[in-house]
Amino acid sequence: MKIHEIPISDTENKDIKLFELTNKAGTIVRITNAGASVTSIKTKDKNANFSDIVLGFDHPEEYINPNYLDNCIFIGSTIGRFANRIAKGKFNLDGKTCKLEANDGQNHLHGGSSGFHSKIWNPHIDNTDAGEILVMNLYSPDGDAGYPGNLKAEVRFSLSNDNELIINYNAKSDAKTPVNLTNHSYFNLSGKDTDILNHEVMIFADKYTPKDGDIPTGDIIPTQKTPFDFKSFHKVGDRLALLPKSGYDHNLVINGKEGYLKRAAVVKEPESGRTLEIYTTMPGLQFYTGGHLDGSYGNSFRRFSKFAAMCFETQYFPDSPNHPSFPSCIFGPDRPYSHTTVFKFGIE
After folding, report:
1. Least CB-packed of 53, 100, 153, 193 within 10 Å?
2. For this structure, is 269 an active site residue?
3. pLDDT of 12
């Protein structure tokens, strides 16, 4: 795998960088340090034609444009300190109430308006025996967005010759704090300006966390005989009539042990023949089908409209700091954060 920096013109912020990762299969992944965001993934289809399979902006500076951040849809970005929602923007930790920004109604979402998606990360390239790795580092001080502890976060991106985009997340804090990092890429394997309703999805989850509004009830119940049962392939659009108008935006409990890399989901797009496999060491997966995309944003190829693409956000469960029965998302000096997610691209 090779990585090189792509020169950026016409930007006032000279700290913004854009990198291109390539492998022997010809796959190209572009990543900017603006939000540590994946901007483009170009893979070949069954006819050996390459096209982009994720939503992304044409220019890296768009990821930190104030107008975009005021109405953010988190296109391809690294999310932190806590991916997903925390009810009413607060939680108790060792007897102390921590108050966060309520940026999603009454709730805290994706680290708040000043979350990791809005930061310019410090990038460098590591040369390893396995090839070059793009490394992004970020320092989040004590009290940042209301979170306790001085946190140092590192995200490592690599592209294997087996067509795997490997994302390693690491973080260390000098005090106990919730940590839940994920990537918010929106996938559409067709590579065309069309919706994802005919994509076929399988998710290896026997259980899910039901919710009241957007917040989990605290229960963990079987997916069997629900629209969340993806243990066999289902088209995205098959059961939307059984869901709210916004479609899927739910946390599924991935089978297998936390900390062990396991296959979480498989996606197929029949026309192009492209496939996507998701592997993770995390306990949960937020399956989101882009129901809140409203066409406000786009690139030179398409508008980002409802059901234009879908996300597979590997994660700790939403509102985990307020649910002791959920897997613990609390990390600190004696428990550093370390997780891996792999997006593997293929053809059938």
Report:
1. 193
2. no
3. 74
